[in-house]
Amino acid sequence: MANDDLKIFRHESLITVPYHQLIHVTELSFSLQGPFNSQRRSESPNPTPERWSIKSRISTSRIAGMAACVLMLLSGLGLETVCSGDELSQLIIPAYGNPCCGSGQDLWAAMTDIARPGILDVILNPNSGPGNGNIGFNYINREGSEGPLIDLFAAGATLYGYVHTRWGSRDLSFVLSEIDRYLTPDFYRTDQALVGGIFLDEVSNDLANLNYYQAIKTHLISKNEQLRITGNPGTSALFDSSNGAAGFHPNDFVESFDKLVTYESFGHLYHQTFTTPAWVTRYPAERFAHIVHSADRSTMMQITQLADERNIGAVYITDDLLPNPYDRLPNYWSDLLTAVIPPVKIDELSEAIRNESTNHNYDLNQDRVVDAKDRTHWITHVAKSVYGDSNLDGIFNSADLIFVFQTGQYEDTIPLNAQWATGDWNGDGDFSSADFIVAFQAGTYQTSVRSVPEPHHALVVDWLIFAFAALRSGKLRLSLKAEKATSAIHRRFLLDAN
Fold it and tell me: What is the C-alpha separation between 93 and 158, in angstroms, rounded?
């Protein structure tokens, strides 16, 4: 990495630490001025920096952090600013290995194996962009009927077409024409492998060039409002060569993209050179990603922890080396998955079962079928919980009933709007009497005294169904609030138990 790739910035930043502490940092640091692109390398136009040093002052306080969260809640400010529950939970993989053979084939097979909706973004880069012709037969066969790209798309990965912008100096018409190629089904010879967005590489971090990227986003939205745009400046350090004349601020920069790669470089520099500017903490972690190469296993584990603390939602970390560090799997692939990819969530699993998914990532009990048995496995073995336990504290009790009554989703007119936390305990997407039957038949409801005895389950379920049906039909003229209704039910359980 050349010396002219470094630039010094002084700033104050507020680093997001989930829930329990705030870290206020004032430091002098340097950030990498521009990402490495394995298939394209161009000299950064930014000036050579002066000598640098790092001096930091860090103070932490759980009490102060919690107090700040409470004050922001009381004042009506969004908790996502510093009290967000966002966390590292996604991989963003530059898939620059040839899927036909060798290490590239292993890379593509491994991505397909772990893919499921929402956890994997894959950057498609056939030839430093889409190239001149249609996509090669190494991605999709001549007939457009099969191939690694079709398999990856079917598994649930989100595909991003690679387009470079040469720091905002590349002819905009060329950029837009390459984007349009990715959006054309003829490019793939099929409609079974379309991109969900565009990955812009070599993004300028000069606010004076932001009009260029806003024009690209406007063009993309005009094609399809659902398409997403990821920008890769490779750094979180922004500057403004117009000295304010352009009229843009860091927030404008973030809003010009759906996701920003704010670090792309060597693993050993990650903890030394990256700092989190204040504007990053105003957004959810899913808006930011880091791509790290040349990192050994120990460094990878440190990076996943640091990225989580730095409000980063997606990463790719590899021990692959220059000149192309993205053409094979990292040797610690399984460890990376364990550190980053979250377990399957119950509502995600329920949707997969309803859709009759064949994705093996949802086959939790490994019987080669995705069905209701996998939900039971999730509840008992993954969550270590029981049916009816809406808040997943391991107990089905009145607290769970209070919450589901308050959501107002019981037998409403909106299909598939319920989740586990709001009463969908049988996984059909709705909250109805069927969910009470599933929950109480399991025999795990607990009162403050002891569990409800088995003989009373049918009585309790019938009582609940009758009460709700009567309330909905107007036969019982009651105006009890959810809390009072639940307290009454709870008292009935106590009487039954005694």
Answer: 10
